């Protein structure tokens, strides 16, 4: 074979006479400063937002818990008032059942002892225990007592108190404090009118504060102090500390115990119920439970710290990434500019030789045309890889169902013509059903890249083995060469863009270092995987694994 004078053989690398462009850039102090300033500003904004949010959170929690205590106090006062009314009604029912004082005179005071309430006729859920009963005649001012005798001064005070309350107690049960009682007792009173509706007699009972405890306990047990969506009824005793006090704020008793959180509210019972009022305090555990549904400052603190850490790391990573991109750009520009000039130089040289008619014999023209075709193919292959990488290979369409084995065989035949059978032998094996869903152009691009790598990095006269096998679930394409292989530690790195291992084979072969990157991206977009193993002949095997598809109708496996 005769070469044109000064013409390099195909595949020979033409040295780059110009200085390789220095794509690396300075880390950019202005850009770094801007990033740092942005990070600090964002951290300050987050900190200010966190502080404001914390203040608002605490104020919101304070308002909510105070409101909860107020609602609970009001609800309990209403329920306790109703329960106390019912208890007084049950206690005085033996007298009130008469309705009015008849012509035959007043019901006797011992009616309380002689009449047992009928649970079917009387609303008597909880009659209050009494020390004695009495009747006061508003006409004669006479006091009759059943249960024990009273000293004259005590009896006189009792008559005076009953007389003052007579008008308020007509048809109603009232509870009054009895200041002269040494035990702080209360008087339950009701007034019976005559047939003309004029108050005629006051009936009542002396009740100790301890006798009222079951009434309030019953009210607390049955009360829904907050909406069930906020607080289930069974949690009332753990969340609230409830007490009952008299008009002088002297505690009569406490219905629940616990450590108070400081959130407290009071509410008075209805009128004529002894001037009693309930006090509701949130326990520390209850306040924590009721506030737990809100967004907490801990959240904001964690977010602030995480945000600052992320921003700081982003700045550091940006600087490192900028340097890495500068180095990648330098290597890419150097590789592409060199590899573009090499085939273009040879194409121009052989084309000019043919144009000027400088061939020495008729067979040289055919040889030069083949060289031009090989270099044009290599140039096209390299440009298409760069374009695929630039256009984001992961956005490819799924395509139609294609026969991967048939496409691989076709690409091998085309590649065999390009490289020449005297340089590389190809051994193709097909097994099973090799149909998959993929664009035919993508399959051809993957096979071409793998064949190009195997041919470039293997020894002369090697055999590249291509195996395509499939079943009902997977289609596997394996391309193995007889080259030096790739160390296990570098098998993931070779899929990075523009990555070329520093080996004698890579230094002697042109390329941009994007062939395997394109393969991985294209196969990944189709739901497949790519991996590298040792070939049986001692070289490298690249294994492509794709999901299988059913053959089109009318196609045999």
Mean pLDDT: 77
Query: In whole angstroms, how far apart are the ends?
Result: 45 Å
Provide the helix percentage.
Answer: 40-55%
Alpha plus pi helix count:
12
Q: Helix-strand pattern, N to C?
A: HHEEHEEEHHEEEEHHHEHEEHEEHHEE
Percent of residues in β-strands: 15-25%
Compute the number of structural domains.
2
Derived structural class: alpha+beta
Cα-based radius of gyration, to the nearest Å: 50 Å
Overall number of strands:
16
The biggest beta sheet is recorded as:
5 strands, antiparallel
Adjacency order of strands in the biggest sheet: 2-1-5-4-3
Question: Ranges with pLDDT <50 over ≥5 residues?
Answer: 1-27, 121-125
Silhouette: rod-shaped
Secondary structure layout:
Blueprint: H1 29-96, H2 111-114, E1 132-137, E2 143-146, H3 152-165, E3 174-177, E4 186-193, E5 199-207, H4 209-222, H5 236-239, E6 240-245, E7 251-254, E8 260-268, E9 277-283, H6 284-291, H7 297-355, H8 362-390, E10 400-403, H9 404-419, E11 424-432, E12 435-438, H10 440-457, E13 462-470, E14 474-480, H11 504-507, H12 515-525, E15 529-534, E16 540-547
Parallel strand pairs: 11-13
Antiparallel strand pairs: 1-2, 1-5, 3-4, 4-5, 6-7, 6-9, 8-9, 10-12, 13-14, 14-16, 15-16
Structure description:
- The protein is an alpha+beta fold and 557 residues long.
- The chain has two domains: 24-325, no CATH class; 391-547, Heat Shock Protein 90.
- The chain contains twelve helices and 16 strands.
- The chain has a five-stranded antiparallel sheet, sandwiched between helices. Strands 11-13-14-16-15 form a five-stranded mixed sheet.
- It is rod-shaped.
- Mean pLDDT is 77; it is low at 1-27 and 121-125.
């Amino acid at each position: 074979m005769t070469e044109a004078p000064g013409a390099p053989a195909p595949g020979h690398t033409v040295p780059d006479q110009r200085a390789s462009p220095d794509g690396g850039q300075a880390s950019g102090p202005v850009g770094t400063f801007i990033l740092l300033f942005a990070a600090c500003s964002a951290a300050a904004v987050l900190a200010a937002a966190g502080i404001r949010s914390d203040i608002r959170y605490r104020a919101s929690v304070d308002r909510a818990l105070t409101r909860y205590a107020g609602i609970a106090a009001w609800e309990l006062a209403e329920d306790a008032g109703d329960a106390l009314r019912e208890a007084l009604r049950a206690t005085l029912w033996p007298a009130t059942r008469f309705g009015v004082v008849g012509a035959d005179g007043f019901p006797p005071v011992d009616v309380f002892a002689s009449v047992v309430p009928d649970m079917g006729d009387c609303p008597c859920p909880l009659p209050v225990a009494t020390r004695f009963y009495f009747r006061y005649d508003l006409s004669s001012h006479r006091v009759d007592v059943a249960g024990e005798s009273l000293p004259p001064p005590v009896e006189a005070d009792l008559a005076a108190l009953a007389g003052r309350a007579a008008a308020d107690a007509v048809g109603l049960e009232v509870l009054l404090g009895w200041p002269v009682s040494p035990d702080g007792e209360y008087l339950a009173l009701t007034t019976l009118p005559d047939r003309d509706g004029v108050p005629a007699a006051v009936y009542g009972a002396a009740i100790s504060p301890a006798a009222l405890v079951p009434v309030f306990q019953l009210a607390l047990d049955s009360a829904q102090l907050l909406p069930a969506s906020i607080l289930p009824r069974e949690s009332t005793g753990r969340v609230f500390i409830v007490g009952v006090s008299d008009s002088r704020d002297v505690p009569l008793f406490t219905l629940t115990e616990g450590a108070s959180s400081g959130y407290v509210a009071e509410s008075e019972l209805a009128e004529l119920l002894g001037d009693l009022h309930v006090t509701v305090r949130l326990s520390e555990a209850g306040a924590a439970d009721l506030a737990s549904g809100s967004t907490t400052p801990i959240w904001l603190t964690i977010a602030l710290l995480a945000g600052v850490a992320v921003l700081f790391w982003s700045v550091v990573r940006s600087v490192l990434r900028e340097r890495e991109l500068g180095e990648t750009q330098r290597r890419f520009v150097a590789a592409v500019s060199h590899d573009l000039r090499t085939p273009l130089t040879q194409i121009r040289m052989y084309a000019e030789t043919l144009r000027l008619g400088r061939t020495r014999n008729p067979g040289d023209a055919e040889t030069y045309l083949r060289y031009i075709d090989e270099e044009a193919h290599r140039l096209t292959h390299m440009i298409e890889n760069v374009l695929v990488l630039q256009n984001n290979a992961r956005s490819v369409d799924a395509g139609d169902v294609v026969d991967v084995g048939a496409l691989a065989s076709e690409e091998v035949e085309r590649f065999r013509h390009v490289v020449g059978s005297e340089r590389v032998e190809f051994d193709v094996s097909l097994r099973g059903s090799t149909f998959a869903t993929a664009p035919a152009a993508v399959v051809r691009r993957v096979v071409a890249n793998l064949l190009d790598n195997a041919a470039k990095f293997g020894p002369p006269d090697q055999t590249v083995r291509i195996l395509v096998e499939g079943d009902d679930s997977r289609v596997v394409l394996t391309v193995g060469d007889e080259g030096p292989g790739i160390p296990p530690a570098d098998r993931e790195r070779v899929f990075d863009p523009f990555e070329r291992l520093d080996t004698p084979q890579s230094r002697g072969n042109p390329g941009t270092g994007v062939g395997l990157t394109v393969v991985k991206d294209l196969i990944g977009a189709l739901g497949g995987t790519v991996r590298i193993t040792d070939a049986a002949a001692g070289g490298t095997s690249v294994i492509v694994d794709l999901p299988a598809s059913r053959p089109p109708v009318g196609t045999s496996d």
